Amino acid sequence: MRLNFWPKISVKFPTDIRGQIYIPSINWILWIGCIAVMLYFRESSHMEAAYGFSITIAMLMTTLLMFYYMKFVRKWHLIIISFILMIFLTVEISFFVANVAKIKQRWMFLIFEFGIIGVMYTWYRAKKIKNRYVELVRLENYISMMQSLSQDKSVQKFINHLVYLTSSDNSKEIEHKIIYSIFSKNLKRADVYWFVHIHTADEPYRCEYKVTHIIPNKIIRVEFSLGFRIEPQVNLMFQKVVGELIKNKEVIIHSTYDSTYKGDPIGDFQFIVLEKYLSFDNELPFHERVIMKFHFWIKKMSLSEARGFGLDPSNLTIEQFPLLISPVQNIKLRRVQP
Q: What is the pTM (predicted TM-score) of this model?
């Protein structure tokens, strides 16, 4: 998932050691695969050819990874790398040629394997295609606009605290889709604009946060540093952060409805989650359009951001954001006189 080869799925950590994980969806796939193997072969003697071919492929993949390690990590000389690869590949290719004739006995598993490879390729390739779209913009270019909107009483107030989740590590940059949501989708006037960033730490139980006042009492960035065993309950954590900032008078809420804040000094807040969709205004090649459509189809079945970050549906708004990668340049349209 971190290498962008697989969609976002639920990951559980049974111990405090980083790297020991349990992934329920992968476990279900393995269970289904085991049942399919039993029903397909029925007897272990029928699995000999398929097992030998699978082992050969695993050996070749290991040799390929070893090549990348020697060349890009250890940075050995090419002559030494070639000598080592020649020894391994001579043996492994011999096994591969001997077992390739038995491939007819494992067609079912080739389909399964090509399916997994297809998902990995689609996810990785779609990430590369989306990177062609410039997503990050300088926040300083929109600060004055956000201040003016917050003070413009002719625009109906959307919420007191408007919260966006941002993946930008740089506090001076923000996703373009967030600016689009505030100004282009519908004008969203709020007392305070919050940008929340979550970082996963190596320590299992770290639970810290840092506050950056970009514009005091108007635009605030909160960075959570959570251990990999801490469930990101952003909804509850954000309320606690806002409560502490109000208590320390770092954030002051002004409202004509004073009675609203007697029981709850935090006030109302709303998380905005932006989901991308492939715009029809794109002019993509056929194969890239197929990849992107398959990518968004897989994404619908993967773990949503709302569930992954523990957001309460009562304080959540999901908006659609058009992904415009390659806009249409020339539209052949001719006016006809009546």
A: 0.69
